[in-house]
Amino acid sequence: MTMRVLSVVSEAYPLVKTGGLGDVAGALPAAVAPHDAQVTTLIPGYPAVMKALERREVVRPLADILGAPARLVSGTAAGLGLIVVDAPELFAREVGPYTNPAGNDWTDNWLRFAVLGRAAADLAEDPAQGFDLVHAHDWQAGMAAAYLRFDHAAVPCIFTIHNIAFPGWFPAEIFPALRLPARAFAMEGVEYYGGVSFLKAGLWSADAITTVSPTYAEEIRTKQYGMGFEGLIAVRAERVFGIVNGIDVEAWNPATDANLAAPYDARSLHQRRINKRGIETAFGLQESNGPLFCVVSRLTAQKGMDVLAAATDELVALGGRITLLGSGDAKLEAAFETAAARHPGKIGVKIGYDEVLSHRLQGGADAILIPSRFEPCGLTQMYGLRYGCVPVAARTGGLSDTIIDANEAALSAGVATGFLFDDVTPQSLMHTLARATALFGDRKAWRGLQEQGMKADFSWARSGQKYTELYRRFAKHDARPAPSKTAVRN
Ligand code: ADP
User: Fold this and answer.
1) How, if at all, do strands 71-77 and 64-65 pair?
2) Ligand 1 site, residue 201, Cβ cutoff 6 A
3) I need a surface site. Which of 17, 204, 456, 477 has the fewest CB within 10 A?
4) Hey, which bits of 331-453 come out as E strands?
5) First vs last Cα of the chain: how many Å apart?
6) CA atoms of 179 and 195, how far apart (whole Å)
7) Can you tell me the distance from the alpha carbon of 139 to that of 165, in angstroms, rounded to the nearest whole number?
């Protein structure tokens, strides 16, 4: 029997994306569809979403949700079956989904995402909608789980942590406006360090918790990675599961990628040279025999970008060059721009977000640098592997689950796909960059790494099946009425 899932999320590719969360939310519906799970995605009505929404139908003409004028509108966009929280006061804002034009969080983010959670619970609690399960993602959707729990709803909730570092914490003053029972403001509830954490709300309330790689599922039980939630994760350990993300193997296919000057596959890797020249031109780099490293990343401490910034002089001294595409902390942006000014022709930097350029870098650079301090799953290493752009990455989270380090044993067995290092320090990074540069000099060995990486299957097939198994295990199993006429079309 088809299972109906309401996926609650604050971004979904290609409509709105700031990172891996958007990629995953956009890919999940198609990943589970072959296993008889039908996903409807509940998403805020940002301008980009409202513009793309087709076949609109008002599901609920509500006066308000938590006091904010809102209605719920179903429709489709970019192949996704959606229900949109149409609340212009909260969501009809240009720029990013979370921040104002100055780059700061909107001060009413607590209300914006509490409304998302309340809308999710209202839909799930309406038998006419026929949902068997709610799947909520990250702190922005954490309140969905809390409302369902405190309403004693029959529909269960799975909560996925894409990044435990964002607690969605707000001061206690907001609590009354959430309209939860008073007892919810407690350790056994949504209270966290004297305020309210939407992430805690999700972790405490959900029937099951997943995170986006098996290694990260282990790591978040520890103080180093748990960001204060390790105690709660440990208590709930029997209900914590790690399912590695897949990637969109159609959008990310070097043989058909229209963004590339020269598409290629594992048998025509020489074509990458044309793409590399394109990058060199675009970034004003000199040609060289040394490796061309690229970075496609948020520029933050999580991504180890301060460590890379501290290692740029040595990297250039080794004969390497860097092309960097990213944006984030102003200090890090400035550090890379300064490094580029110090090393003209060797380091090229583009501050910003550019989907097309991100494909071009993967399709032409020799290696991608990912020195993350922690990485719940990480997608760029999988894109790199698929594109023959060898990942050089920290051994953490999803990076250690998806890359096989080129140590002697792996090289001689022909299974290596990249480079992993343990301590995110300039020394350790440099040591690994030296290893990578040396192996780059051995063309046959390097090609072996590329070919091996390109063989790996990172499609959603396996992960889609795992999510569906979990959905079935936790879904509501009692009989329910068939969806009424107002039900959402997919
Ligand atoms: P996170 O979600 O922590 O940022 P992931 O590796 O899981 O990291 O996902 C990042 C996604 O965002 C990838 O699809 C990556 O290609 C993309 N990305 C990151 N920075 C940029 C950028 N500056 N321009 C284009 N795409 C980017």
Assistant:
1) unpaired
2) no
3) 477
4) 347-351, 367-370, 390-394, 419-421
5) 16
6) 15
7) 10
Residue type, 276: K
Closest atom of ligand 1 to CA, residue 302: 3
**How much helix, strand and coil, in percent to the nearest 5, is found in the chain?**
45, 20, 35
Mutate to test the pocket of ligand 1, among 357, 362, 380, 463 (most ligand atoms within 8 A of CB): 380
Per-residue pLDDT averaged across 168-195, rounded?
98
Residue given tokens 């004003």 in the structure block: 284
| pLDDT band of 44, cuts 50, 70, 90 | very high
Measured CA to CA in angstroms, residue 185 lies from 107, 115, 116, 171, 327 at distances of 21, 18, 19, 12, 37
Cα 364 to middle of ligand 1, angstroms: 17
Which of 3.40.50.2000, 3.40.1080.10, 3.20.20.70, 3.30.1490.20 is the CATH number of 3-246+461-475? 3.40.50.2000
What average pLDDT does range 39-48 have in this prediction?
98
Q: How far is the CA of 307 from the centre of ligand 1 (A)?
A: 18
pLDDT, position 63: 82
Q: How far apart are CA 229 and CA 197, in angstroms?
A: 11
Cβ atoms 437, 406 nearer than 8 A: no
| Atom nearest to 377 CA in ligand 1 | 7
Question: Over the stretch 74-84, which tens digit does the pLDDT of each residue have?
Answer: 999 999 999 99
The yes-or-no verdict on residue 435 having pLDDT over 50 is yes
* Residue ranges per structural domain of the chain: 3-246+461-475, 266-456
Q: What is the pLDDT of residues 110-166, one digit of tens each?
A: 999 999 999 999 999 999 999 999 999 999 999 999 999 999 999 999 999 999 999
Does residue 452 have its Cβ closer than 6 Å to ligand 1?
no
Closest residue by CA, ligand 1 atom 22: 353
Q: What is the DSSP letter of 123?
A: H
Q: Do domains 3-246+461-475 and 266-456 have the same CATH topology?
A: yes
| Nearest alpha carbon to residue 41 among 123, 107, 104, 99 | 123
pTM: 0.91
Q: In what helix (H) or strand (E) does residue 298 lie, and over which residues does it extend?
A: strand 292-299
Residue with tokens 């609690």: 125
Position in ligand 1 atom list of the atom nearest CA 355: 25
Could you tell me if the CB of 298 is within 6 A of ligand 1? Answer: yes
**Is the distance from the beta carbon of residue 20 to the nearest atom of ligand 1 less than 6 Å?**
yes
Q: Is the CB of 354 under 6 A from ligand 1?
A: yes
Identify whether the C-beta of residue 136 lies closer than 8 Å to the C-beta of residue 142: yes
What lies within 8 Å, CB to CB, of 271 at 6+ separation is 262, 263, 264
| 3-state helix/strand/coil string of 418-453 | EEEECCCCHHHHHHHHHHHHHHHCCHHHHHHHHHHH
